[in-house]
Amino acid sequence: RDLDAGEMAAASISGDVRAIRIDLTDPATIAAAAAAIEQGDDRLDVLVNNAGINDPRDGAPGAVEPEAVRRIFETNFFGTLAVTQAMLPLLRKSPSARIINQSSDLGSLTRQGDPDWKYAFIKSLGYSASKAALNMLTVQLAAELREAGIAVNSTNPGATATDLNGHRGHQTVEQGATPAVQLALADEAAFSGAFVGVGKIDPW
Length: 204
Fold this sequence. Notes:
The chain is α/β, with parallel strands linked by helices. It has a single domain (about 45-200), classed as Rossmann fold, CATH 3.40.50.720. The chain is about 40% helix and about 10% strand. It has seven helices and five strands. The protein has a five-stranded mixed β-sheet with strand order 1-2-3-4-5, sandwiched between helices. The radius of gyration is 17 Å and the shape is globular. The chain starts with a helix and ends with a strand.
């Protein structure tokens, strides 16, 4: 969203890197980003849907403010869906495209249903439900794009220290990014429709 910050980040990376402004809640920037990629490269090989927010008003279902849940979904799910749809024509031009949706442990229905799970005490309906919805997008999109040869997977970075959680995670950003990077750099799209954690496949 902040082009100046994006350009600073791009300048710190070796190689041909450029920043493009995109705000998932602003359809005009999504369309402009797709147009800029098409003009510069004609195709897109890898789409990593990494944008995500939380809201301090998020909480347990009985007390959470519905507006907080809507705000979180607007970015974490609806915005991601809009970006993915906008980029699909460019991904279809790639010989081995893949889509990587950055999800979360908290989006796992299996783990949320286990009272002994180590994070069972976290009750954040908006964030957790938005990531569960993102996982559903992964499963359905993987099925839809299978014949097109486009692999679609969710990744689980684990508890990573970022601005999102006040840097309280025990992993570095580099460690949390490992599943997404491995999927992005794989020579072939070996599988699709999976929830990939750090060195393992995680349960939906």
